[in-house]
């Protein structure tokens, strides 16, 4: 199971997210998209103090926030999270219809069996300009 699919099941869980710029966001997940974009509610956001890295930054309370997935460094999940039930892959794997069809002919942009192009071999093949 992909990590994002796991996070999508964690709706209504209170988590802490550290962003790549050092900001720490604590809130309750409302939704997670396949790109890991995360929507939170009841948020407390602590920005990183740039002047003194050891001192805590400014804390801001927000009703909701949307975080772009590419800016997330990691999630800190609660210890009470039932991992065994959330990690069960409940969606059956989709069957590939093209393989069930059998011969697999005429799929994609294949070049055939290498015959029927004449003496020149077609354009862009081998040496020369293919005239």
From TrEMBL:
Biased composition (Basic residues): 108-131
Quaternary structure annotation from Swiss-Prot or TrEMBL: Component of the heptameric LSM1-LSM7 complex, which consists of LSM1, LSM2, LSM3, LSM4, LSM5, LSM6 and LSM7. Component of the heptameric LSM2-LSM8 complex, which consists of LSM2, LSM3, LSM4, LSM5, LSM6, LSM7 and LSM8. The LSm subunits form a seven-membered ring structure with a doughnut shape.
Keywords, in A-Z order: mRNA processing, mRNA splicing, Nucleus, Repeat, Ribonucleoprotein
Record-linked CDD domains: Sm_D1
Protein name, entry field: Small nuclear ribonucleoprotein Sm D1
GO cellular component: nuclear lumen; spliceosomal snRNP complex
SUPFAM superfamilies: Sm-like ribonucleoproteins
Sm domain mapped to chain residues: 2-81
GO terms classed as biological process: regulation of gene expression; spliceosomal snRNP assembly
Subcellular location(s) of the protein: Nucleus
Residue ranges of coiled coil: none
Top-level lineage group: Eukaryota
InterPro entries, alphabetized: LSm4/Sm_D1/D3, LSM_dom_sf, Sm, Sm_D1, Sm_dom_euk/arc
Region (Disordered), start-end ranges: 86-131
Major localization class: nucleus
Entry-linked PANTHER family: SMALL NUCLEAR RIBONUCLEOPROTEIN SM
Protein family (similarity comment): Belongs to the snRNP core protein family.
Keyword Nucleus annotated: yes
Organism encoding this protein: Exophiala dermatitidis (Black yeast-like fungus)
Gene Ontology MF terms in the entry: RNA binding
SMART domains tied to this protein: Sm
Nucleus keyword on record: yes
Pfam families in alphabetical order: LSM (PF01423)
Function (record text): Involved in splicing regulation. Facilitates post-transcriptional gene silencing (PTGS) by limiting the degradation of transgene aberrant RNAs by the RNA quality control (RQC) machinery, thus favoring their entry into cytoplasmic siRNA bodies where they can trigger PTGS. Does not participate in the production of small RNAs.
């Amino acid at each position: 199971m992909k990590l994002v699919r796991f996070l999508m099941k964690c709706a209504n869980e209170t988590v802490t997210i550290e962003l790549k710029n050092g900001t720490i966001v604590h809130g309750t997940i409302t939704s997670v998209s396949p790109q890991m974009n995360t929507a939170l509610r009841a948020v407390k956001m602590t920005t990183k103090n740039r002047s003194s890295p050891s001192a805590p930054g400014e804390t801001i309370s927000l009703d909701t926030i949307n975080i772009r997935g590419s800016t997330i460094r990691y999630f800190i999940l609660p210890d009470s999270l039932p991992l065994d039930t959330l990690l069960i892959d409940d969606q059956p794997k989709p069957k590939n219809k093209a393989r069930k069809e059998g011969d697999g002919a005429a799929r994609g942009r294949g070049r055939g069996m290498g015959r029927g192009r004449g003496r020149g071999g077609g354009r862009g093949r081998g040496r020369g300009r293919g005239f």
